[in-house]
Amino acid sequence: MNSDTKFILYSFFFNIFTIIFFSFIYLSIPPNNFEPLNPKDKLTYIDFLFYSVTIQTGVGLPDVTSLSDLAKILALIQQLILMGTAFILVLLFFKK
After folding, report:
1. N or C of the chain: less Cβ packing under 10 Å?
2. What is the pTM for the complete model shown?
3. How many domains is the chain partitioned into structurally?
């Protein structure tokens, strides 16, 4: 396995780790920081995992809305991590 392939693999695992890490952070902060699409629903870990995946992959906002500044800042940090890893991978492919 060459170094480029290893770097891509490490990047993938880093993103998986980031998704899981942020899903636990979202779960650990008070629930009034988020609102589900249907206000009658109670947010579970799966909701926060789904939220974290959609933030990390950049596909758009899921069925959970960030209400507080804390929740918005955490989502912004996660998006910046995504942008950073994507930027590094693009540089890797265009360096040749």
Report:
1. C
2. 0.85
3. 1
